[in-house]
Amino acid sequence: GVILGSPTTTITSYGYMRNDAGDILINPTTGLPVIDATFKVRGDRNPDFTLGWNNQFSYKNWRLNFLWDFKVGGDIFNGTEEFLNSIGRSKITADRLVPRVIKGVLQDGLENTTNPTQNTIVITPYTYDSYYRTMPEEAFIEKDVNWARLRELTLSYTFPRKKAGTATFIKGLSVFGTANDLILITNYSGADPGING
Q1: Selection from 44, 45, 50 nearest residue 67 by Cα
Q2: Which of 15, 24, 21 is nearest to 121 (CA)?
Q3: How many CB atoms lie within 10 A of CB 197?
Q4: Phi, psi (5° rounding) for residue 82?
Q5: What are the distances in angstroms from CA 111 to CA 22, 116, 123, 130?
Q6: Would you state the pLDDT for residue 166?
Q7: Cα separation of 115 and 56, whole Å?
Q8: Burial class of residue 131 (count of CB atoms within 10 Å of its CB; 0-12, 13-18, 19+)
Q9: Which of 69, 72, 90 is nearest to 80 (CA)?
């Protein structure tokens, strides 16, 4: 989404209600996070920097070219994980029987004071299925995603001139094979950060 005055790379969504200090507000009755239904900027896809490294090695008639692609920073919305979560198939729903306390402060009138009430209410997601069903898009925005990717690898062989043919219109002959995206090293939990990014 694009918001006036923000970059065009922003991620806009619904999110969690927070106090002035940025802590998630918790409903004191249910122990669940309070949802902020304001559609606003929650992330930015713009990386801190990107870098490419292209190199070539040669040995006799063989040549190996490769291109590494590096990206540091930037947020990514993991829409696949959100969908899997909504139908109970994501990894985060596997521990639904485990009791937990959601980190945050209670929305009890003290949330913006110097001593807000820390949440201590224990919930079990299996009992409160709305815990997963009402998770806003903000919960699926992964921050500061990095990657190193072997974008392209090409191996080529150039035939010697005497084997290239006797026809005068043939100046040279070579064959090559190219493979794309052979290696991906990333802190992103989804399949491919380049697609979702």
Answers
A1: 50
A2: 24
A3: 19
A4: -60, -45
A5: 10, 5, 20, 23
A6: 60
A7: 60
A8: buried
A9: 90
Neighbours of 14 (CB within 10 A): 17
- Convert the pLDDT of each residue in 63-103 to its tens digit: 999 999 999 999 999 999 999 998 888 888 889 999 999 99
Q: The tokens of 159 are what?
A: 């035939």
Q: What CA–CA distance (Å, rounded) separates 6 from 154? A: 40
- Read off the tokens for 176: 């090559």
H runs (alpha helix) in the chain: 79-86, 130-133, 161-164, 193-196
Amino acid letter, residue 123: I
Residue 36: other Cβ atoms inside 10 A: 18
The sign of the CA dihedral 120, 124, 128, 130 is: positive
The radius of gyration computed from the CA coordinates of the chain, to the nearest angstrom, equals 26
Six-digit token pair at 28? 């004191």
Say what the pLDDT of residue 88 is. 85
pTM: 0.82
Q: Which residues does 103 contact at the CB level (< 8 Å), separation at least 6?
A: 24, 119
Question: Is-contact 66 58, C-beta < 8 A?
Answer: no
Measured distance CA(100)–CA(118) in Å, rounded = 14
Handedness of CA 40, 42, 48, 52 (dihedral sign): negative
Q: What SS3 class is residue 78? A: coil
